[in-house]
Amino acid sequence: MKVIINQDDQPTGVFIPLDEWAQVITSVKRNTALHHLLSRKPARSVFELSPYELNNKLHGVTSQLVAEAYENDLYTSHSSTAGLPNEFIHRYPDGKIELVKIDTTTGREEILKIYQ
Fold it and tell me: Is the pTM of this model over 0.70?
């Protein structure tokens, strides 16, 4: 366990490594605010999640954002499957799909192909 201090050498927090978590919580008096706080399962960083776990965690949020974009007649955009750095797929609410190329100097879009 480590005490976190600010620039004025005042303690501002405590860092508890996960491997010390169980030992620390057993030493805290039950039914206190600190015990309730420590009883919550610590969240893993998104950088520690597997691709499958990250996909599951973000699926609901991304689905909602896509639905909101479509409700507002906006398109969604993602990299083309060809993997070319300046090519993107735009998907529209009406089902139209465009393959576009972005000029990195001017920002202009050139429509390469339209799919219905």
Answer: no
